[in-house]
Design goal:
alpha+beta, Chorismate lyase, two-stranded antiparallel ribbon, 10 strands, DNA binding, WH_DNA-bd_sf
Length: 240
């Protein structure tokens, strides 16, 4: 497998995220990048295409590739980013409080969400996300135990996705999301510092592995004043 273009993508994307490459900066030309990384032009083009696809650069015909200001992205709607990754990227002082970790049998609702049977075991993980001393996110996760056989308190307080990818060797691929605004429940009021808000933004996600197996259902409940949900979209013309 050719991973050279991925390494180049990761290096440039990392430099953009760390601010080492500033917004509106023009990247070196393809020829210059070919010489810098000692790879083929095709490898450079694959890396640049990936950078464009994920919103790091804009390629302008006849002018080159320019870095896009990524600091405007607060909570990516279409991306699959863990809370740990997001908080580190945004430089937030964040903390995770684990409220519940247990193996349960699914009710009809969870059976439908995870496409499993009533006798299947699932992990239920309830975590409170605290940012700058305020409890503003309630994350309720349900994992199909056949894909995630074990979980610990330490894993849940750190990063479950990091554990799944680096320890279990699974590849988390894509998700389907639904965003609604709902009345705050008793559970929301119990766990979150709502400060008078009686509504929460709810993001429901069905997360899949790279073999298209559904392994997780997540319900993330947010205090409405603390997050701006954004997306990066690139237009593609459909065939007529």
């Amino acid at each position: 497998m050719n991973t050279k273009y991925l390494n180049i993508y990761n290096e440039i994307a990392g430099n953009i995220e760390k601010g080492e490459i500033k917004p509106n900066t023009k990247l070196p030309s393809e020829n210059e990048l070919v010489k810098k990384y000692s790879v083929s032009r095709d490898t450079i083009r694959k890396a640049l295409n990936l950078l464009e696809q994920y919103g790091y650069i804009q390629k302008i015909r006849g002018k080159g590739s320019y870095v896009i200001d990524i600091n405007r992205f607060d909570f990516p709607v279409s991306g699959l980013v863990s809370f740990k990754e997001l908080s580190e990227k945004m430089g937030m002082k964040a903390n995770t409080i684990l409220e519940e970790l247990q193996i349960i049998k699914p009710d009809k609702y969870l059976m439908n969400q995870l496409k499993i049977k009533e006798n299947d075991d699932i992990w239920k993980v309830v975590r409170i996300r605290e940012i700058d001393g305020k409890k503003i996110i309630l994350d309720k996760d349900f994992f199909n135990k056949s894909f995630v056989p074990s979980l610990t308190e330490d894993i849940c307080k750190d990063s479950i996705y990091e554990y799944i990818e680096n320890k279990l060797g699974l590849c988390i691929s894509f998700s389907k999301k639904e965003i609604t605004v709902e009345n705050a429940t008793k559970e929301d009021k119990k766990y979150l510092d709502l400060q008078g808000y009686n509504m929460v933004v709810v993001v429901k996600s069905h997360i899949y592995l790279d073999d298209a197996n559904l392994f997780q259902y997540n319900e993330s409940r947010h205090r409405p004043d603390k997050f701006k949900f954004v997306d990066f979209a690139r237009r593609k013309k459909l065939m007529e």
